[in-house]
Every structure is written in C-alpha cells, then in structure tokens.
Write a structure and sequence with these properties.
371 residues, Butyryl-Coa Dehydrogenase, subunit A, domain 1, Butyryl-CoA Dehydrogenase, subunit A, domain 3, four-stranded mixed sheet, 50% helix
Length: 371
C-alpha cells in the first residue's frame, strides 16, 4: 500500500519541525510536545494498528522509509515514531478485551513497550500484581499505556514464564534517569510502579508475542519478532546516517586549507565509501521489510532478516565514523550536527540484541544445520 499524498506531506512537515528543534531536543533530553503531537497526527501511532480498531494497518516498507525520513532531521524523533508504530505488534497479541482497553479512544494511543524482563509479578485472583522499575523506556513521559515484561528471571520469579503486562498511564510514574551519550531526545527514563493490579485480559505470554501470535485477527500469518524487530533499531539510524551524509557533503565540497589540505582527497574517498555503505544498508532494509510485508516467513527468511538488520547497522555505524572524520576537529564541537548524528548512531549500536555475532551464528548454524 503506497502512502497518500496527504500522509507524505504530513511526514515531511514532521521532519521539518523535528529538524528545527533537533539541537534543542538533544540539549533538553526530550523531544518537545509539539513534535510528539505532529508524530501522532502524521499517523505513526496508528500505522500498524489493525483496521478492526480503526487503525491504518499499513506496511513495514513504507514505515521504514517514513522513519528514515524523520531520522535525517532528528534521530530521537525518528526513534520515538518508530517505537510508537511497532508497539501495536505487541498490543495485538493481548486478549481482545485488553486490545479494546488500549484502543478504546481510538488507534492513536501512544504505547511504550519494554521487552526486557524486570520487576516481580504475583499471581492473584483475576490477574497479577506487578511491582518494579523498568529502565530505558523511550517516550515514557508522553505515553498513554505501557507494555511491561516480567517477572525478572531468577529465584524471585517463582518459576513463572515471562509475560507482557499492559498498564495504563495513571498506574505508573517515571524517574528522570536518561543521560546518555546519544539519542538524548528520546527521554528513555525509568518507569516505576508499585503493587499494581493487572487483569488477566491485559496479559499475554512474551513467547506468544515473540511468535507473532495475534488475537482476533483470523487469517493473519504470525510475524516472528526476530523477522521484524531489527527495523525498530536500524530505520532511525538509516535516517541519521543520511543526515550525516548531507552535512558531510557540504564539508567535502569546500577545498580544505592549512594542515587539512593534504588530506583533502582522503576525505573525498571516505565520503564516497560512506555513501556506498549507506546505500547498501538501505537496500538490505528494503529487502527485509518487503519480506515482512509478504507474510508467511520461513525460518530461513527470519534468520536472513536478523542477519541483515545487524549487518546494516554495522555498515551505517562504519559510514558515520568515516563521515565524522571528514569534519575534523570542528565537527566534534558541541552543537555541530555531524557529531550529534554520530553520537545517535553509536548509541544504537550498543544494544546487545543488535550485535552481528549472534545474528551471524544463528544464520550460519541454521543454514548448515549445526545449531
């Protein structure tokens, strides 16, 4: 499904607004409320919401392109928009009454999701009592609901399986703890709740959500988490790398003087290689998202997608490293957009689930049957 002219225009306007405030978001460690409203108005929260709940039920290929467009201007805005869209994948795995609770007021509900298991969950009549702190909850300040994974593994889990719990905004608070090198505007603070009752209809097994076992959507093929989750990390980075490329293009267009003059051609070669790496990463993401949109994924395609997400991220990080070099010392000054893009990209590459080694091993061992 291609995007309407109206939607495309809205995305462009969000990108402009976010770009104008990108330095401010970085300094204040939060994207502004007006940018968040623009993200919602452009349809990101409803992007993947099933049509039965009033959502747009659009594709991942268009979503990836839209997120990357925002990332060219503000990586943090792109990150929040991407997560706002992808959260619907997990909501759709809750029992139908739980889905109805979250989308009762429409499909534009902002949902923050934490997949890492933390906290404690005590089974009680009709549901669970949930307590704990969940770190790195991007967009928690603006969220209407949170999807929290628990309990934390270990002796205190009581042997319970990991579950995803849906909690409304009035039941949790957050602590201002986000002070990261990059992606500063995401406001990825610590969510806190204490002995909150979560009814059974707002709970599902994390294993089921990871299998893509949606509820109330007959005929929809399961979408394994490993086949698609990498897009949430890499799509914003693709945009950030393209933004860095645009800044570096202005730098290499001017002949260097002084001590930099001898390195002029080296900078041009770095720029060309970075541009090629970014193009190659984009092609990998386009193929992966097209596979996801096609449905009925085989295990081989799931493993290939996981490999390609990690590889694309590595390529984008390498490309952004090269581009930062083209700017020399001045590009590392506070406020220079090139160092901001570089910090944002490097922040995402630190995520444990996006390292290439486990993705590469999974791909190869699945291929040769040695897993």
């Amino acid at each position: 499904m291609s995007l309407s002219t109206e939607t495309q225009s809205a995305i462009v306007e969000v990108a402009k607004l976010a770009g104008a405030q990108a330095a401010q978001a970085d300094a204040e460690r939060r994207v502004s409320p007006d940018v968040i409203r623009a993200v919602v108005d452009a349809g990101f929260a409803r992007w993947l919401v099933p049509a039965r709940w009033g959502g747009d039920e659009r594709g991942y290929t268009e979503l990836t392109a839209a997120v990357a467009k925002l990332g060219e201007e503000c990586s943090s805005t792109a990150w929040l928009a991407c997560l706002a869209a992808h959260a619907a994948r997990y909501v759709a795995c809750l029992p139908e009454q739980g889905q109805a609770d979250i989308w009762a007021d429409g499909p534009d509900t902002l949902v923050a999701a934490v997949i890492k298991p933390l906290g404690t969950a005590v089974a009680v009549e009709g549901g669970f009592r949930l307590t704990g702190s969940w770190t790195y909850v991007s967009g928690v300040e603006y969220s209407d609901w949170a999807l929290l994974t628990g309990p934390a593994p270990g002796p205190k889990s009581g042997g319970q399986p990991m579950r995803i719990f849906a909690v409304p905004r009035q039941d949790y608070t957050f602590q201002d703890t986000w002070a990261s090198l990059g992606m500063r505007g995401t406001g990825s603070h610590t969510l806190v709740l204490d002995d909150v009752f979560v009814p059974e209809h707002r709970v599902c097994l994390r294993e089921d959500a990871f299998r893509g076992a949606t509820v109330g959507l007959p005929g929809r093929a399961p979408l394994p988490n490993a086949a698609v989750s990498g897009l949430t990390f890499v799509a914003p980075v693709l945009g950030a790398a393209r933004g860095a490329l645009a800044v570096a293009a202005q730098l290499v267009a001017v002949a260097p003087t002084g001590p930099r003059a001898a390195a002029g051609q080296s900078y041009q070669v770095d720029f060309a290689r970075a541009a090629g790496e970014i193009d190659a990463a984009q092609l990998l993401l386009e193929r992966a998202s097209t596979v996801v949109d096609g449905g009925a994924l085989t295990p081989e395609l799931v493993r290939r997608n996981r490999r390609d997400y990690a590889l694309a991220l590595q390529m984008l990080a390498d490309a952004t490293d090269r581009l930062l070099r083209t700017g020399g010392t001045r590009a590392q000054e506070d406020g220079h957009p090139l160092q901001r893009y570089w910090r944002d990209v490097r922040s995402v590459t630190s995520h444990a689930v996006m390292q290439f080694e486990p993705a590469g091993l999974d791909y190869t061992q699945g291929l040769v049957g040695t897993a």
